C-alpha cells in the first residue's frame, strides 16, 4: 500500500489528550517556574489542569468543527464522569473517543499484570457507560506501557494502541496472537512550548509538512493538543493558522486515529522507500 484513501499523500491526525489527575494531586509539569516542596498540595497546578474540562476542550471542539476536521480525544475515563456535557458533545460532533487510562497519574508501569488488566478494562467500561460506545483505541497515560499492555489491549478487542515510538507510520502487529495496529505517538506536542512561544508549533509543523510533501510519497503527521494546556487561546490561535494552511492542499487526508488504524488493518502495512534503492544489505 503506497497511498492513503483517494490517493492522498499525507494523513493528518489531530489528537486531543483530555486529562485529569487524582483528587488532591496535580500535573508534575506546568507553566509556573517555581516548584513547591514535596508533599505540599499544588492548588495552582490543580486549577491549571481543570482548565481542560472547563474551557479547553470546548475551544478545541470549536476549532475542529469550524475547520471541518475530525479529531480523536484521548480521554482519561474520569473526565467522562467529571465532564459529561463535553463528553456528549465530542460524540455528537463525530469525533472519536479513545481510552487514556482512568486518571493521568495512574501509571501502568507501577502495576502488576493483574492490576493493569483491571485498570484498562475499568477505563474502557467507564467510557462505554458514558458514551454508549466502547473505545477502539488505547493511549497509555504518559506512555507508561509495560511488556503486557498491548497484549491486554488486544485481548480486550481493541483495534489499535497509540504508544508506538519506534516508527512513524502505523503498523499491523500481533499481540497475544491477535491483530493490533500500532499507532505512532506524536513527536512534538503542544506541551513542548509551555514556557516558550506557541509560534514554534507553527514553524515545526509547517516545515515538517512541506518536507514530507516534497520528499516522501506517503506520510503521517500526528498533532497533539492537550485540553488543559493547548486549549488556551494563545495555542489554539496557532493551530487555527496551521490547519488553514494544510487545507490549501488537496492531497491531505484529515482523519481520526481510528480511521487510519482501520485503513491499515483492512489494507496491510504502508510501504516506504526504506532502505533506499541500492543500499547494501
Number of DSSP E strands: 9
Stretches where pLDDT is under 50 for at least 5 consecutive residues are: none
Number of helices: 8
CATH architecture: Alpha-Beta Barrel
CATH class: Alpha Beta
Describe, in plain words, how this protein is organized in 3D:
- There is one protein chain.
- The protein is α/β, with parallel strands linked by helices and 281 residues long.
- The protein has one domain: TIM Barrel (Alpha-Beta Barrel), CATH 3.20.20.
- It has eight helices and nine strands.
- Strands 1, 2, 3, 8 and 9 form a five-stranded parallel sheet that branches. It has a four-stranded mixed sheet with strand order 4-5-7-6.
- Strand 1 (10-18), helix 1 and strand 2 (71-75) form a beta-alpha-beta unit.
- Helix 1 runs parallel beside helix 7 and helix 6 runs parallel beside helix 7.
- The mean pLDDT is 93.
Features:
about 280 residues; alpha/beta; 8 helices; globular; 5-stranded parallel sheet; TIM Barrel
Helices and strands, with pairings:
Blueprint: E1 10-18, H1 43-67, E2 71-75, H2 77-82, H3 84-92, E3 96-99, H4 113-131, E4 137-138, H5 149-155, E5 160-164, E6 171-175, E7 178-184, H6 199-215, E8 219-224, H7 233-246, E9 252-254, H8 257-267
Parallel strand pairs: 1-2, 1-8, 1-9, 2-3, 4-5, 5-7
Antiparallel strand pairs: 6-7
Helix pairs in contact: 1-7, 6-7
At a glance:
The protein has helices at 43-67, 77-82, 84-92, 113-131, 149-155, 199-215, 233-246, 257-267; strands at 10-18, 71-75, 96-99, 137-138, 160-164, 171-175, 178-184, 219-224, 252-254. By secondary structure, it is an alpha/beta fold.
Amino acid at each position: 500500500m503506497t497511498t492513503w484513501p483517494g490517493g492522498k499523500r499525507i494523513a493528518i491526525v489531530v489528537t486531543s489528550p483530555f486529562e485529569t489527575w487524582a483528587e488532591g494531586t496535580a500535573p508534575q509539569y506546568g507553566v509556573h517556574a517555581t516548584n513547591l516542596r514535596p508533599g505540599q498540595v499544588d492548588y495552582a497546578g490543580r486549577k491549571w489542569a481543570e482548565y481542560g474540562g472547563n474551557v479547553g476542550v470546548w475551544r478545541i471542539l470549536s476549532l475542529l468543527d469550524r475547520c471541518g476536521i475530525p479529531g480523536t480525544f484521548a480521554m482519561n475515563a474520569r473526565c467522562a464522569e467529571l465532564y459529561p456535557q463535553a463528553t456528549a458533545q465530542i460524540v455528537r460532533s463525530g469525533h472519536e473517543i479513545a481510552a487514556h487510562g482512568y486518571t493521568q497519574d495512574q501509571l501502568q508501569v507501577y502495576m502488576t499484570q493483574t492490576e493493569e488488566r483491571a485498570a484498562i478494562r475499568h477505563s474502557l467500561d467507564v467510557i462505554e457507560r458514558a458514551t454508549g460506545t466502547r473505545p477502539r483505541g488505547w493511549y497509555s497515560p504518559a506512555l507508561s506501557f509495560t511488556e503486557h499492555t498491548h497484549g491486554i489491549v488486544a485481548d480486550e478487542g481493541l483495534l489499535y494502541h497509540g504508544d508506538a515510538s519506534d516508527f512513524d507510520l502505523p503498523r499491523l502487529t500481533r499481540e497475544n496472537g491477535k491483530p493490533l495496529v500500532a499507532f505512532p505517538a506524536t513527536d512534538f506536542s503542544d506541551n513542548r512550548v509551555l514556557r516558550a512561544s506557541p509560534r514554534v508549533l507553527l514553524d515545526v509543523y509547517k516545515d515538517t509538512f512541506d518536507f514530507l510533501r516534497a520528499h516522501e510519497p506517503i506520510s503521517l503527521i500526528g498533532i497533539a493538543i492537550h485540553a488543559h494546556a493547548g486549549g488556551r487561546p494563545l495555542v489554539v490561535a496557532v493551530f487555527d493558522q496551521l490547519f488553514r494552511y494544510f487545507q490549501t492542499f488537496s492531497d491531505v487526508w484529515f482523519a481520526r486515529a481510528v480511521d487510519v488504524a482501520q485503513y491499515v488493518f483492512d489494507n496491510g502495512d504502508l510501504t516506504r522507500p526504506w532502505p533506499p534503492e541500492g543500499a547494501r544489505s
